[in-house]
Amino acid sequence: MAPVSALAKYKLVFLGDQSVGKTSIITRFMYDKFDTTYQATIGIDFLSKTMYLEDRTVRLQLWDTAGQERFRSLIPSYIRDSSVAVIVYDVASRQSFLNTSKWIEEVRTERGSDVIIVLVGNKTDLVEKRQVSIEEAEAKANQLNVMFIETSAKAGFNIKALFRKIAAALPGMEAISAKQEDMVDVNLRSNNSNTSQSQAQSGGCSC
Amino acid sequence: MEKGNSDDSEIRPVSSPPPVDRFGFLKNQQNGAPQVSSQSSIPREKERIKKWRKMIGVGGIDWKHYVKRKPHVVKRRIRKGIPDCLRGLVWQFISGSRDLLLMNPGVYEQLVIYESSASEMDIIRDISRTFPSHVFFQLRHGPGQRSLYNVLKAYSVYDREVGYVQGMGFLAGLLLLYMSEEDAFWLLVALLKGAVHAPMEGLYQVGLPLVQQYLFQFESLVKEYMPKLGEHFAQEMINPTMYCSQWFITVFSYSFPFHLTLRIWDVFLHEGVKIVFKVGLALLKSRQDELVQYPFEKLLHALRNFPEDAMNPDTLLPLAYSFKVLIFFSPT
Predict the structure, then answer these.
(1) In this structure, what CATH number is given to the domain that contains residue A39?
(2) Mean local confidence (pLDDT), A103-112
(3) Which InterPro entries does its entry note (chain B) (predicted)?
(4) Which chain B residues have any C-beta within 8 angstroms of a chain A C-beta?
(5) Phi-psi region for residue B226, left (φ > 0), alpha (ψ -120 to 50) or beta?
(6) Is residue A156 situated within a structural domain?
């Protein structure tokens, strides 16, 4: 069992075109399941999960977003607020891959270099329909200096690897202890401690 | 079971039909409706339908007259819920869409058959992701999905500036469960163009101006009616885009129990968008005591997952009516 002391929290925002699989990736990570009855995400969705790593435990707060261009006006504040941007495309849709440039650009504009960006090529199970090769995507990721991985939320391929990769890149322990005050969360195992939890958190947020 | 251009008549019934609730949603889905009301209320229901039929008249001939003579009776009866068998028809009367349909013969067909739209791919990507747990929309390329595509495409041609925006599919899908394609299209037009109430198109235009405006107004109303909760939201840095943009964009048709959605739509079509604010306030009010104690994560979770008893229309709607909401419309 991981120690129940301070739990570092990180916000992740999921970006990318309509129906590339942002919600599916999150659902696979959260509940290790995939089903075909997902509704399109409207606006913004929120989920969170604790991840137990070898040397520490982190709490990930995930913002899932609607992919359609029209919703972009709702998204900048979520980018500003996140330390990780996960930018997803569909390996079977060249257009969705090309559009990742716009998303990366937008994240850089909001956050500069103070952000972890991961380019994710999802739907590798669509072998016959592939329109973007792994080499091309890797080259793009190198050129833009972002991390890269291919996944299949449907097959459950590389989803854990994606989140482990993200966790490994998160600011290390020294950053956590320095920023301890606004990262502290009290004992998530017990739900009876609502009051103290809320105090700890509001104390952190208001500064 | 991929099908080509086969007729509906060729679609074979699945060996054992999946269990669905009384609205056609697969059981154990989030939209699930409670069992039909108890046996004892059936005669009352029949009585109610009789009253409604009298109010409408054959083919709707008496409706306008009745509304003029007894607007308060109409309002009261709509707030109690329109009988399900008359819902589609009454929705067309109160939204003004029936008049639009009669004034524009042949227009819908023209839009569907002859025009093409820049939004077609966007629409296709969402078709199977709109009410995926309803039997009507489940079959790939089946009649439900085809109708949904047609209505959305027709609208994206009718108003090329708005085109198709995610969320509109839920409005169209809901309407298609109660009326024909053409009727659903004109009701969508009536709503977005504002046949009897403020136009909704600003919810979907570039920059989502009306979403921004409504969320701002909703936040102010929360502060006014529930100052403690408003303050708690501010402290926890919760803003309305985090939990209620869908309430406005889909008029509660996205993730609420279907029987509640229908009751809200009855009032929404008759009285306008104010009911969306009121229901939103009522949801918060009903759980206020818990919400003010929750920290960020728990709070967001609670705001997206209201318990069953908080979503009972017979208690939620009366609470909603108790809020006075004044919405000022800035012309765009």
Answers:
(1) 3.40.50.300
(2) 95
(3) Rab-GAP-TBC_dom, Rab-GAP_TBC_sf, Rab_GAP_TBC_domain
(4) 29, 122, 125-126, 128-133, 165-167, 169-170, 204, 206-208, 211-212, 235-237, 239, 241-242, 245-246, 249-250, 254-255, 293-298, 300-301, 304
(5) beta
(6) yes
